[in-house]
Design brief:
The protein is mainly alpha-helical and 181 residues long. It has helices at 2-42, 46-57, 69-78, 100-121, 126-142, 164-180, and strands at 87-89, 161-163. Helix 3 runs antiparallel to helix 6 and helix 4 packs antiparallel against helix 5.
Length: 181
């Protein structure tokens, strides 16, 4: 007899749960109908259509947001680091516009060198360097401009080697210029 009561209690609990779930679905459906009817009413007049098309044409990214903003923030974090001491190929900040992607790739390639140095020396800014490398490479992969480097653009190893501070200053200038375009 006790077994029957326990089964009844379990069934009652499941029934209550299903009832709450059903109420939730009904509420969602009513909300859907309400929003849907207002949306289509908006499209029935000229002003509604104008607003709809203006909203649809707005770019999905926030105005003024640069895809390199996170990289720039992390560069600011590491630029004063005293425990990073490396010489790095440093691209010129005034390269032609068509060489911009190879320049960016060079900076991120050299960031990998900084990352390796930080892993060896256990730098205090290792996470920031990792973020720069990861975010930069993700942005470059998602936004490939050219599959080949133009002949007039230099290879990374052709640039002058500079110390860490000069490298970061140049890197920041290049990123800031990219964010302005």
């Amino acid at each position: 007899m006790a077994r029957t009561t326990r089964n009844s209690a379990g069934a009652l609990s499941r029934l209550e749960s299903q009832k709450i779930h059903l109420k939730s679905i009904c509420l969602q459906y009513q909300l859907y109908l309400l929003l849907n009817s207002h949306f289509f009413c908006l499209l029935k007049n000229e002003m509604g259509l104008i607003i709809f098309f203006l909203c649809a044409s707005v770019p999905k990214t926030a105005a003024g947001h640069c895809k390199w903003a996170e990289v720039l923030k992390d560069l600011e974090q590491i630029k004063t680091s005293k425990d990073i001491d490396v010489s790095l190929y440093t691209a010129n900040t005034d390269e032609d516009k068509e060489c911009q992607e190879p320049v960016m790739r060079c900076f991120f390639l050299e960031t990998k060198v900084i990352l390796q140095e930080c892993l060896i020396k256990n730098c205090s800014k290792t996470q920031d360097v990792w973020n720069i490398w990861k975010n930069g490479n993700a942005s470059l992969e998602n936004n490939k401009l050219n599959s080949t480097t133009p002949a007039k653009c230099k290879e990374c190893e052709e640039y002058e080697e500079k110390n860490f501070t000069e490298f970061i200053q140049s890197f920041v200038k290049v990123i800031q210029r990219e964010c302005k375009h």
